Amino acid sequence: MNIIFMSSSEFGLPALKKLVESQNKISAVYTQPPKKSGRGLKMNKSVIHQFALQNNLCVRTPTNLKEQTEIDFLKKSNPDLGIVVSYGLIIPTKILKIPRFGFLNIHPSLLPRWRGAAPIQRAIMNGDKKTGVNIMKLDDGLDTGDICKKIVIEIKETDNNESLSLKLSKLGAEVLMQAVIDLQDGNLNFTRQDNINTTYAKKIDKKETELDFNCAAKEIHNKIRGLSPHPGAWFKYIDASNNFRVRIIEAKILEGHGEPGEVIDDELSIACGDNAIKPILVQKEGKKPMHIKDFLLGTKIPKGVILNKSVI
């Protein structure tokens, strides 16, 4: 089968690897253009871009897909199928219609729950007990296409955004390949989505990443997990000589009481609106992640202070 693959994130890498290992032809890999990053502002290619080059695949990096050159290229490629996994660009209707069987998409949620940009993070932050992967056919809507494959997994208390993303990307790749095989055999069936229980996973806003210790410890713990390790949930400490942010990458809930945001012991346990959280792995801005004991050896945050407030 002649396939066009579109992805820009590590989430799409297992699927691309599976396709390369298969007997299918990959006419082109579309990924977002290299971006400047790091201290030297070097142009860095996406992991998809790098893997595609290593495997001698044709790579295209348009800033949008509306240009006639891309439409002409895709038509000339005469693809049977397009596959999209966390690509990051809107795919125009004209392009959706080019492949013989349209486009399939790996979406990491139990649609129609958590349509949108951040389904994994929102599921964890919301305290969902289950999530999964859907393989759906792309249409003009926001994750509204018909579904052909579905798998459900449990969200564990130890899962964070990184670990759950890795699980779902691998599962998604396996289910996608089964969908491709079924499509080749003429056995792939689609079901319309039920729009009754639709929820939307909007992109994480920077304002959301600050921790509000007025919330219950459970809610705060879910936010830490959902935003870990990136972009990270954080608090601010301010005194006469310090003003810095600290990301909490890993934490646990414990019984404890105090004013919301109050440091209630010498191990940086923090009182919440209900119970408390104990940071385990933290990252001071500009520094590497470290265990809380190592952090407290070099950074003093005394018991009794209220975080996110000035103590000057």
Describe the structure.
With 312 residues, this protein is of the alpha/beta class. It folds into two domains: 2-200, Rossmann fold (3-Layer(aba) Sandwich); 206-298, Formyl transferase, C-terminal domain (Methionyl-tRNA Fmet Formyltransferase, Chain A, domain 2). It is built from eight helices and 16 strands. The strands form four sheets. A seven-stranded mixed sheet has the order 5-2-1-6-7-9-10. Strand 6, helix 4 and strand 7 (103-107) form a beta-alpha-beta unit. It is elongated, with a radius of gyration of 23 Å. The relative contact order is 0.11.
Separate helix tally: 8
**Which band does the percent of strand residues land in?**
25-35%
List the strand order in the largest sheet. 5-2-1-6-7-9-10
CATH class of the largest domain: Alpha Beta
Rg: 23 Å
CATH superfamily membership of the largest domain, which one?
Answer: Formyl transferase, N-terminal domain
If you consult CATH, what is the topology of the largest domain? Rossmann fold
Coarse shape: elongated
Mean pLDDT: 96
The H/E string reads: EHEEEHEHEHEEHEEHEHEEEEEH
Task: Give me the count of strands.
Answer: 16
Structural class: alpha/beta
CATH architectural name of the largest domain: 3-Layer(aba) Sandwich
Distance between the termini: 67 Å
Whole-number total of structural domains: 2
List unreliable stretches of 5+ residues: none
Approximately how much helix is present in the residues? 25-40%
How would you name the oligomeric state of the polypeptide chains in this document?
single chain
